[in-house]
Automatic annotation (TrEMBL), chains A, B:
It comes from Roseibium hamelinense. Its cofactor is Co(2+); Zn(2+); NAD(+). This is 3-dehydroquinate synthase. Belongs to the sugar phosphate cyclases superfamily. Dehydroquinate synthase family. The gene is aroB. Residues 193-342 form the 3-dehydroquinate synthase C-terminal domain. It is found in: Cytoplasm.
Length: 379, 379
């Protein structure tokens, strides 16, 4: 079975995101940064380009991208931000907007985001706003950014009142997912991105999850299985986004593991030494499966199967694996209730009826969740 | 003729802006602020509302709007900015975004702009960005805002590199143009807005321009002719915007008088004691007509006819009416060349073949414009 899928991949390393006149391609493959200049020229022409990146990524990958743009005859400016979530802020947004205008980019010129989710979110919001919308190209350099934030058009910065609260929907014109750059990714970050890969299997594609169980070492080692897994993940998200661009219905499935996960990230005050997003999602997905078992929706062996896989790739699967003290249950519940998924006192949760069979449940009783979480905290 | 039009108006004080799923109504009439609460509730429901306004407008009209929202049972917060163009800046953008989040508005709640173009542009950009897009309602309180910025969805703030360079296309859900509030507008501001009203006649509706020649005193005095003129203007812009939302082609006609006008505004360093936008447009429209005559497109009596009308309503019609010294011709030409309308060394200008017959000319020789302007400066 895995073999059939691999044969498909070799030919099909492009995923189309279908959104009418804003449709775009995600190209996936090793070494794509080397040919980025030509791909960009084919998509948006040879106008000026501003590359937005962070210091860490610039040290690793900027010269390859810059050389490629030079070879394609694309004049470009580089704007750098400090690495890390703190750059998703109003002052950096203003500084980048001004930087693009200072570089005299016109409407019709393009902004290229070279980096992970932070750079992509920030640069995308900048691209949406300068001259009321410029062409935007993503060169995501983390697994998480390649399989998650490069699809869907969500861009934004953080406010003092919460993450991603200020932004725009702004679709890229092209995404270049160079899977070789992931070789330089710290293993903890690769694993965290893999949690989202596994999520696509768990939420709607049981066959993909089975394939991951059989082929995950190839994904981690940078074999053709990696490109395959990323393409399948992008395709899964692209299909959901195409059906529901503005997150009215089915797109909520993408939140599998995220309601618990976000609460845990908030519980550790977003201290990434304790928990990064993908780890929160991994634990959150386990909690979603255990909670679904509690509600009689799935059997214990389904929970065990998911736990076995997430555990074998090295992802955390329970609250006990978060270093340090966790806050009391009511603090976690407050975070859950503030996660924009509450309507008339009832919680919206993504639950599941089996591997690949997640669904949106809009009437979850907070008291049941609290009792479940209390038990987990005390375990 | 004027009479027929007036009879139509009494029934039809709503203009529909057709933009697929983002279509909306502009309601036009005296006293609409009194019933704004109910209109808003009918359009977006009775969720929370944030009213964004400036100090000057708040003193005149906020209590009427606030009372109306109270009567409709709409809980609302008021966020004020200083009056004037300087509020269209990054710091106010950030402060307003934070203010809306602090007031705990959710996706699905609405932002109401009560004010002129500055408040509308700024509040619209805020509405586009908070939670990646909230419902937006405009209550424009100047003639210029009622006939121009309330149609088309352009929102934005200024950058140190130029005006309106940062923003979004974000359509309102509803526009309430209360024509009675214009009674409190300083006459100079009313006249400046009227330049844009006349523009709609000049660019594409000769019959409307003739009607204005016959009925302008009613427009100024607040008779039913005022509502009629505003409705016709909104309809004209709405038709153009519906055909060309992103300013690719026909929308450029709306720039009649604006290329010269913007250059003159820049020439006086945007000092509104010397020249406000509508006055620049009025002089710019005269220059566009005189330049069209120079090119043999129209007869001198057409120029005289336009001049007579703009002059009788009290608008400036020539460079000599701008107080103080104007810069040399090359400074004006630099401003014209920077006005985003240059392609491969040739200028795009809106010229005319007669009253109501403007057209886009994409290949105007800058040297011809320079010679024309030099003559006007030396006249």
């Amino acid at each position: 079975m895995g073999n059939t899928m691999l044969e498909e991949t070799a030919a099909a390393n492009a995923v189309q995101v279908m959104l009418d006149d804003r449709s775009y391609d995600i190209l996936i493959g090793r070494g794509l940064i080397e040919t980025a200049g030509e791909e960009i020229a084919e998509t948006v022409g040879r106008g000026r380009v501003a590359v937005i990146t962070d210091e860490t990524v610039a040290a690793l990958h900027l010269s390859a991208l810059s050389d490629s743009l030079d070879r394609a005859g694309i004049v470009h400016t580089v704007l750098r931000v400090p690495a890390g979530e703190k750059s998703k802020c109003f002052p950096e947004f203003e500084r980048l907007c001004d930087g693009i205008l200072e570089a005299k980019l016109e409407r019709g010129d393009a902004i290229v985001a070279l980096g992970g989710g932070v750079v992509g979110d920030l640069a995308g919001f900048v691209a949406s706003a300068v001259r009321r919308g410029m062409d935007f190209i993503q060169v995501p350099t983390t697994l998480l950014a390649q399989v998650d934030s490069s699809v869907g058009g969500k861009t934004g910065i953080n406010s003092r009142y919460g993450k991603n609260l200020i932004g725009a929907f702004h679709q890229p014109r092209l995404v270049l997912a160079d899977t070789a750059v992931l070789d330089s990714l710290p293993i903890r970050d690769f694993r965290a991105g893999y949690a989202e890969v596994a999520k696509y299997g768990l939420l709607g594609d049981g066959a993909f999850f089975s394939w991951l169980e059989a082929n995950w070492t190839g994904v981690f080692n940078g074999g053709p299985e990696r490109d395959e897994a990323i393409a399948r993940s992008c395709k899964a998200k692209a299909d959901i986004v195409a059906a529901d661009e503005r997150e009215a219905g089915r797109r909520a499935l993408l939140n599998l593991g995220h309601t618990f996960g976000h609460a845990l990230e908030a519980a550790v005050a977003y201290e990434t030494v304790r928990l990064v997003h993908g780890e929160g999602v991994s634990i959150g997905m386990m909690l979603a499966h255990e909670f679904s078992e509690r509600l009689g929706l799935i059997e214990p062996d389904t929970v065990e199967r998911v736990e076995k896989h997430l555990s074998e790739v090295g992802l955390p699967i329970g609250l006990a694996q978060i270093p340090g003290q966790l806050p009391p249950v009511d603090t976690l519940m407050d975070a859950i209730m503030q996660d924009k998924k509450v309507s008339r006192g009832e919680l919206t949760f993504i639950l599941t009826r089996g591997v690949g069979e997640a669904f949106v449940e809009k009437a979850v009783d907070p008291a049941t969740v609290r009792a479940f979480l209390l038990e987990k905290l005390e375990a």
